Amino acid sequence: MDRSDLATRVELLRRLADRADAIALTHFQRVDLRTMSKADATPVTEADLAIEAMVREEIRRAWPSDAILGEEHGEEHGEEHGNTARPGSFRWVIDPIDGTVGFSNGIPIFSTLIGLEFEGRVVAGACSMAALGERVWAARGMGATWERVGRAPVPARVRACARLGDALICTTGVEYFEESGTTDALLRVARTARRVRGIGDSYGGMLVATGRADGWLDPVMYPWDSGPFPVILAEAGGIFTDWHGREDIRGGSALAACPALHHELLKLVTR
After folding, report:
1. pTM of the model
2. Angle at which helices 183-192 and 259-270 pack, to 10 degrees?
3. Are 32 and 45 in contact (CB under 8 A)?
4. Is the terminal CB of the chain with fewer CB neighbours within 10 Å at N or C?
5. Per-residue pLDDT tens digits for 12-44
6. Which CATH architecture is the domain 3-155 placed in?
């Protein structure tokens, strides 16, 4: 991979996150926000559709050979690569609004997630939370950066926590554990960790990457949900895998933690 190609795409990624934030805030907490139900009964708003359309248009204009995968409009192959695993191929993975249920109810814990893959590996990504005024972005070999409105950017780093009994663990709604048949795993973690809090969607990943929580687990993840987190957690000094310990994942499940806790959490969820 040419480092200049990555650096140029990272510049675009950050601009896309800026524009996505602006669109999200235009629609956030509007009394006339249009919300629809998709075929799987999950919600989608006009903001989701507008953000993904904008991101796709800008990527096509700048890098027409890159592939795109988005939650709302599916897979789009680049002009030169019909198979995203071919050598030299980039793919962008987009979740225009992660946390649409919260967004549509006026809750500020939502984000835009953008991941960038090269030959099937996540090499850059951003998690941008417009209503909270903070963002984490990272690129392989360039570290992870935590940006907040009104403050200077600082490196994003996981914090050291040696024991699960001292840890704060973030997770998602109980219904996802029940639907996936993993409620027993949640109970094992809750009985072992010092505290478990229902801070769902991508905010749990951001909290771990910025040293404000020690672990994050989710039993149900789609490729766009996990999009940027393999590189964000790696560059922040943490570990991000699925519940089978596989790194650089594309959905399924998610487990993020500092290195000292990850193995202990993994044993609990896979027992």
Report:
1. 0.93
2. 140
3. no
4. C
5. 999 999 999 999 999 999 999 999 988 877 889
6. 2-Layer Sandwich (3.30)
